[in-house]
Amino acid sequence: MVNTVGYIGSYTKKDGKGIYRFELNEEAKKLETIETGYEVQASTYVVQHGDFLYGIKKENDKAGVAAYRIDAEGKLEFINDCLESAESGCHIWVSDDGKFLFEAVYGAGQARLYSLKPETGEVLQLIDTVVQQGEGPNEDRQDKAHTHYIQQTPDLKYAVAVDLGADEVITFKFSDNGLNRVGELKLPAGVGPRHLTFHNNGQYAYVFTELSNDVFVLKYNDGDFEILEQHHAVPDDFTDNTQGAAIRLSHDNKFVYASNRGHQSIAVFKVEGDGSRLSLVEMTDCGGDWPRDFNITRSDRFLVCAHEVSGNVSLFERDRETGQLTLLENDKQAAEGVCVQFL
Predict the structure, then answer these.
(1) Quick check: 264 and 289 in contact, CB under 8 A?
(2) DSSP letter at 2?
(3) How far is residue 11's CA from residue 4's CA, in Å, rounded to a whole number?
(4) Which of 257, 306, 259 is closest to 45 using CA atoms?
C-alpha cells in the first residue's frame, strides 16, 4: 500500500519549520515519518489544489501567500509568492476553478482575494483587501473585527468568511474586480465564531466558536444562513480556560469533529437525518497540549491531530460506524504545528 502523504503548517516563533511533510502507513496504522517539507516563515495554513500547494508566508515586514508545486512523492518546489501586506493571514482557500485564492487575516480583520494562474499554479496578484467592521462583548478578543476563516460556498457562487471579533458569518460575491459583501448572519454575542465546514449536500454548515466552544448548525441557501441548533463541545461543568479550534466533517458526512484547546479534547457529533441536526457521541482526550488543528484521511479510517504547544502529533483510528476515536500514537513531533492537510 502506498503511504498517505500529508502536510502540517506551523508557526516559526520557536522551533517550527513552516511546512512539515508526513507519511501515514494506513496498513500498519502508524506515522512513518514527519520531516521538514519546506522551511518557510510562519506558514500557519496550507491548502492543496490539484498539483499545487498554497501556504501563508511572512518575510521580514511583508506577508501574503506562496505557491509550491507538489511532485509525485509529495515533495514541494517553490513557484512564487505575493507578499504585499503588513499582517500575516490565518486561513486560506482556493476556488474550485483554481483561479482565486481567499485569505482571512485575524489581526487586521481582513478578507483578501488573490488571482492565480491555474495552469502553472502561480500567484498573479493581490486583487482586493476588505476590512471588516464590528466588535463583541469580550474585551480581550472582540475589541474589533477578527476574520478567522474564509472559503468558497458549495454552490460556487460566494465566499463565506467567519469573523470572531464581530460574531458574524459574512457572505461575499467575488470576481476579478474584488470582494463585494452581500450579507451576514449575526451569531449570539460573545461566542467568537472561528471555523466552519459544509455538509456535502450544500444545505447545511457547521460553525465552531472559539470563545464558547459551541457547534452551530446553520441552514444555507443561496448566500443566506440561518441558525438551526447549538451544541456545547466541552462538559457544562468545565470552568478552566478552553478555546475552540478546528472543525472537520468525515468524508461520508456522518460525523462532525471539533477540537478544544485547554480542555485538550476532540468532541465527536453524529450527523442526523439530512444534516440539519447533530447529537453528541463522545469527548475524547486529544493526546497533547493545545489541539490547534486535525484532519481525517480520505479513507475515513484515521484522524491526525497537531498540537501547537506540546508540538506532538496524535494519530487516531476512527470507527466508521460509531465515529469514535482510538488513540494509536502521539510521540512524533511537528513543533508549533497548527494546520493539518492530506494530499
Answers:
(1) yes
(2) P
(3) 24
(4) 306
Grid cell digits, residue 33: 515519518
Q: What angle is formed at CA 97 by the lines to CA 96 and CA 102, rounded to 5 degrees?
A: 60
Check the CA dihedral 277-220-145-266 and report its sign: positive
Q: Between the CA of residue 297 and those of 31, 49, 305, what are the distances in Å?
A: 12, 16, 11
What is the edge-to-edge ordering of all strands in the sheet holding 147-152? Answer: 147-152, 159-163, 168-175, 178-186
Q: Are 31 and 333 in contact (CB under 8 A)?
A: no
CA-wise closest residue to 207 among 190, 187, 184: 187
Question: Rounded to a whole number, what is the distance in angstroms from the first to the last CA of the chain?
Answer: 15
d(CA 131, CA 27): 47
CA distances from 220 to 67, 169, 223, 274, 299 (A): 31, 11, 7, 13, 27
Position 1 scores a pLDDT of: 62
Instruction: Provide the 10 A C-beta neighbour count for residue 336.
Output: 24
Question: For the stretch 214-244, what's the b/e string if a residue is b when 16 or more beta carbons lie within 10 angstroms of its beta carbon?
Answer: bbbbbebeebebeeebbbebbeeeeeeebbb
Say how far apart CA 293 and CA 305 lie, in whole Å. 6
Q: Give the cell for residue 29.
A: 496504522
Please write the tens of the pLDDT for every residue from 10-63. 999 999 999 999 999 999 999 999 999 999 999 999 999 999 999 999 999 999
Compute the distance between CA of residue 335 and CA of residue 282 in angstroms, rounded to an integer.
28
Q: What is the mean pLDDT of residues 174-184?
A: 98
One-letter amino acid of 188: P
Query: Rounded to whole angstroms, how far apart are CA atoms 34 and 4?
Result: 12
Taking the C-alpha atoms of residue 68 and residue 169, their distance in angstroms, rounded to an integer, is 30
Torsion sign, CA atoms 46, 202, 278, 136: positive
Total residues found in the chain within this entry: 343
Q: How far is CA 314 from the centre of its chain?
A: 17
